[in-house]
């Protein structure tokens, strides 16, 4: 629900440089609201047994919003809306998160090679009154070309797969493997701009 007065900025509760770049693309001013050292941010992203990707990404995004709201209340921050997001990759009903090491990154990419997978990104905005607006979920499909083992190994060695769901970033070197996408390019990057803009305007962000 819209607020009565516009806000000049939003808090971004994400360390992702890609999300920062995408907000800048929209012309949205933001300030970072990152987890404190005592917060276990990775625990929020743990997959529950039997959890489907769509349920998972929406749950994690909402949990990140709750954590960010608590962080805002506990700190000496100005009141403004908060933006959180979460991205996951799914294939064969399995969630592919961020790889822990090179072997896991290689295995994920080998699984994606020559096939289509789904990328889901959830976005949540907590308005300045502390109310979380309904979480929006962007669903896209990406088809990778067949990949030779040497090409996978070279990509893993570049370091780009780490810190990214599914072990790749579509905006980087992995673009050479992408045959086709169906959906939101910005959503695959980590922040679907159409859904994000709508939520920010509903929360009273002026941009």
From TrEMBL:
PANTHER family recorded: BIFUNCTIONAL DTTP/UTP PYROPHOSPHATASE/METHYLTRANSFERASE PROTEIN-RELATED, BIFUNCTIONAL DTTP_UTP PYROPHOSPHATASE_METHYLTRANSFERASE PROTEIN-RELATED
Sites marked Important for substrate specificity: 18, 87, 171
Domain of life: Bacteria
Cofactor needs: a divalent metal cation
Major localization class: cytoplasm
Annotated localization: Cytoplasm
Annotated EC: 3.6.1.9
Family the entry assigns: Belongs to the Maf family. YhdE subfamily.
Substrates-to-products reaction catalysed: dTTP + H2O = dTMP + diphosphate + H(+); UTP + H2O = UMP + diphosphate + H(+)
GO molecular function, one term: UTP diphosphatase activity
Entry-linked NCBIfam families: maf (TIGR00172)
Entry keyword set: Cytoplasm, Hydrolase, Nucleotide metabolism
Name the record gives this protein: dTTP/UTP pyrophosphatase
Keyword Lyase listed: no
Catalytic residue positions: 86
One GO location term (cellular component): cytoplasm
Function statement: Nucleoside triphosphate pyrophosphatase that hydrolyzes dTTP and UTP. May have a dual role in cell division arrest and in preventing the incorporation of modified nucleotides into cellular nucleic acids.
Organism encoding this protein: Paraburkholderia lycopersici
Record bears the keyword Cytoplasm: yes
An annotated GO BP: nucleotide metabolic process
């Amino acid at each position: 629900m819209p607020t009565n007065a516009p806000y000049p900025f939003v808090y971004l509760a994400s360390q992702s440089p890609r999300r920062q770049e995408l907000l800048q693309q929209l012309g949205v001013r933001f300030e970072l609201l990152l987890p404190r050292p005592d917060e276990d941010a990775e625990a929020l992203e743990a997959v529950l047994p039997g959890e489907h990707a769509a349920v998972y990404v929406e749950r994690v995004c909402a949990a990140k919003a709750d954590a960010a709201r608590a962080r805002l209340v506990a700190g000496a921050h100005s009141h403004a809306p908060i933006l959180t997001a979460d991205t996951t990759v799914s294939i064969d009903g399995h969630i592919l998160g961020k790889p822990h090491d090179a072997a896991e990154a290689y295995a994920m990419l080998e699984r994606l090679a020559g096939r289509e997978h789904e990328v889901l990104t959830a976005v949540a905005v907590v308005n300045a009154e502390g109310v979380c607006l309904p979480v929006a979920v962007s669903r896209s499909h990406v088809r990778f070309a067949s990949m030779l083992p040497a090409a996978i190994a070279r990509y893993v060695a570049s370091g780009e797969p780490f810190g990214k769901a599914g072990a790749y970033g579509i905006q980087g070197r992995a673009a050479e493997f992408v045959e086709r996408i169906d959906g939101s390019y910005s959503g695959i990057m980590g922040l679907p701009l159409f859904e994000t803009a709508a939520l920010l305007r509903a929360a009273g962000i002026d941009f």
